[in-house]
Amino acid sequence: MSTVAPAARAAHGGAWGPRLVRWWPLALLTLLAAVLRLSTLHLQSFWYDEAFTVVRDLHPSLGATLRSMVHTENTPPLWYLITWADSRVLGTGEVALRLPSAVCGIATVPVAWAIAHELSGRRAATLCAAMVAANPLFVWYSQEARAYGLFMLTAALAMLCFVRAAREPTPARMALFALTGALALLSQYFAVFLLVPMVLWLMCSRRSRRAALPAVAALALVGLALIPLVLAQGGHGTQWIGQWPLIGRVEAIPQYYLSGYSGAPLGHGVELLVALPILAGLAFGVWRMWEPPAAARRRGTDALDAQGSLAQERRGLLMAALIALAGVLIPLAMALAGADYLAPRNLLAAMIPVTVAIALVVASPSTGRAGMVLGALVVLAALAISVDVDLSPRLRRGNWRAVARALGPVGPLRAITTVELGETPLQYYLRGLRNLPARTRVLVSEIDETGYPPLRRSAREPPAPGFRLTARLDIDGLIVYRFVSSVPRFVSEASLRRGVITPARPEVLVPARARLSA
Predict the structure, then answer these.
(1) Whether 432 contacts 512, CB under 8 Å
(2) Angstrom distance (rounded) from CA 51 to CA 45
(3) I need a surface site. Which of 4, 150, 223, 490 has the fewest CB within 10 A?
(4) Cβ–Cβ contacts within 10 Å for residue 511, how many?
(5) What number of CA atoms fall less than 13 Å from residue 12's CA on the CB side?
(6) How far apart are CA 363 and CA 131, in angstroms?
(7) Which residues contact 243 (CB under 8 A, 6 or more apart)?
(8) pTM, rounded to two decimals
(9) Domain ranges, ordered by start, for the chain
(10) Is 448 helix (H, G, I), strand (E, B) or coil?
(11) If residue 146 lies in a helix (H) or strand (E), which one and from where to where?
(12) Is the distance from CB of 418 to CB of 506 less than 8 angstroms?
């Protein structure tokens, strides 16, 4: 027994040692993703869309929630099924409703690892997972109670299953591709633009065409089943897209990827600092991946081995590039043709194949240590911005939670005017508020005006006779003006709208028990 046990332990150690060495980078990167997403999940307050989900969409019954989603949203139903179930178990707090997105964001890291590993190898997988874990855009949408984190995960899963099905087109792999592709379609309509090149790749290959037919048919059926929902929703809440010039939205796509959703205050200099190692790594990687065999021999690389591995890397790069280009260029072409739903955040999942393509080039074995150094610089720059968002209020969502705290309990003699983006957050944090109907008057002794800069020149002027300015607050960039009257007075809805402090579209909120007059 004394001789068997050491041998068994040696055999056991010999089996687990290489496994630990192989998987510890992925484990650390997944842990990094979890820390970045979970440790600050409570830090920012809800913004308009997140609060809209709670105030307008969520109801005690699932049927009422789905009916509301049809008439108020422009997103497929999967996210609302998950959110409704989550709210039944954990409630409607900020952490509770953001937790599914955070879990999706964390899970995307090992999926991205697997994609890059399938297409190239361990080096590219490590860099790809690190970029997904630290990228400020991916972190941001992993901390938002909306469908984007789910979209990112399901699209990445579909890409992984596609890559594996293209390499080995078995019925089981095609079934997984159909399942994950359907989940992506049920998460966000823009998934169709990512699935198109995958389907075309499988159908254009003689090796996979026959096996892919059932999977393609299943995806087509899911897409057709969603058409009535698309028509019923009719693009609710997308008016803001047309108000943002197309050229500005196109410019925002790389800006979002480099410095995150809220990175605009950092300036173009920071974007350039992040872009430089990416561009240098891409240029160096492309040069090495397409260098002549003679140059590889001079560097001491076996020409036949180099040609074989590079052929595999180039094929993987072509896959990732086609998916990324389709995910961006098809919505752009539709926008130019008049069907304009192009918004940078709707392209979030397309940034996964973009990241895969960058990792495949920068971390190609042909780039050696230089490629990994450049890749490490990219990850460190992204990580610095992600941490800066947690440290700098100017890079966060508007702090409507603090505004609500400053306003205090809502009494019956108060009216609150706010910008459109502050409407549902204030209704979430100050329960019992409702919109003041048009052509009515409300009895108030206090009027609180809230909004973002720039402010109107008349911001300090009372919105109605008899009121005087008593306080001006700046709460992380959100401005609050408080006007008070010594006696309650009736003020019209029109006067309250005209007296807002900001030129943005105003909303007027009053307590549910406020006294109204026609």
Answers:
(1) yes
(2) 9
(3) 4
(4) 21
(5) 6
(6) 12
(7) none
(8) 0.92
(9) 25-395, 400-517
(10) strand
(11) none
(12) yes
